[in-house]
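ESCALATION

Customer reports they have been waiting on this structure for their group meeting. Please prioritize. Original submission:
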Amino acid sequence: MAHTVAGKKKLLARVRRIQGQTAALERALDEGTDCIAVLQQIAAVRGAISGLMSEVLEGHLREHLGPSATDDATRSQDVEAVVSALRSYLK
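Update from on-call: job pushed to the front of the queue and completed.
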């Protein structure tokens, strides 16, 4: 997955921000913060995860499924793997 290696620094920065957001969510729950504030924090975490998923997915599609990336058989297998990952993500 060269696209994740090439963008490693940027992706790790996103993951670290998500860790910070989940830590804030944990603190909010532990401290009995108002439900609306907790819901807003959950929405922020979800948005951050979606952004990370979008970035990795776009890189994968461009690198592994682009017009000259691979042969048809390999491309077909990769499409199925992406579909499977998306189904899991969207559950």
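Sent to customer with the following note: The two ends are 25 Å apart (CA to CA).
Escalation resolved.
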